[in-house]
Design brief:
By secondary structure, this protein is mainly beta. It has a domain of 127 residues: PLAT/LH2 domain (Lipoxygenase-1, Sandwich), CATH 2.60.60.20. It has one helix and nine strands, in the order H-E-E-E-E-E-E-E-E-E. A five-stranded antiparallel sheet has the order 4-1-6-7-9. Strands 3-2-5-8 form a four-stranded antiparallel sheet, with no helix packed on it. A hairpin with a 7-residue loop joins strand 2 and strand 3. It is globular and about 55 Å long.
Length: 182
């Protein structure tokens, strides 16, 4: 099996991810084709794209006193076929200082086909100075599937607030789901 990557594993490069889920491809894509190398790399990229889905994950921190967190936040997407496993939300595409009060952060999550998105688990490691976090909502858009789902939360992920949980399982709000042409 061949699992090519051809992507950065760095917070300050590409999409900021330091973990990648790789999909296997046919060995013909990996064998060096001396006179046609650029073309085989392009075809390899298309082959990998066909087997994976890119999600845009937007996370809204509530506008309450001490709502932001400095803890490490993670998410797991659960589909009808599989789940993504734990994905660290490291590099926001919008804000350098992520998960601050009243702000929306945007992340890219790539995964093999997990089927229709059914629920998410989001939480943090409870480490750092300000660990408590008020999560307003999570929005997950999958352009290749033509679906954008909203996961309302409106609760604390804090050992000393609400029910003390620092992880939440959230289901999509059916009325806030948008479908469009992929």
């Amino acid at each position: 099996y061949y699992f090519p990557c051809q992507r950065w594993l760095a917070v300050e490069e590409d999409d900021g991810q330091i973990v990648r889920e790789l999909v296997p491809v046919d060995e013909a894509f990996v064998k060096k084709d001396s006179e046609n190398d650029g073309q085989s790399l392009a075809t390899l990229g298309l082959e990998q794209k066909a087997k994976s889905t890119t999600y845009t994950v937007k996370v809204k921190t509530g506008d309450k006193k001490n709502a932001g967190t400095d803890a490490k936040v993670f998410i797991t997407l659960y589909g009808s076929k599989d789940d993504t496993g734990i994905v660290s939300l490291k590099a926001s595409k919008i804000n350098k200082n992520k998960f601050e009060r009243g702000k929306v952060d945007e992340f890219t999550v790539e995964s093999v086909d997990i089927g229709d998105l059914k629920k998410i688990k989001i939480g943090h490691d409870n480490k750092g100075n300000s660990t408590g976090w008020f999560l307003e909502w999570v929005e997950i858009d999958a352009p290749s599937l033509g679906r954008c789902l909203k996961f309302p939360c409106g609760r604390w992920l804090d050992k000393s607030e609400d029910d003390g949980a620092i992880e939440r399982i959230i289901f999509p709000a059916e009325l806030q789901t948008t479908e469009y042409i992929p």
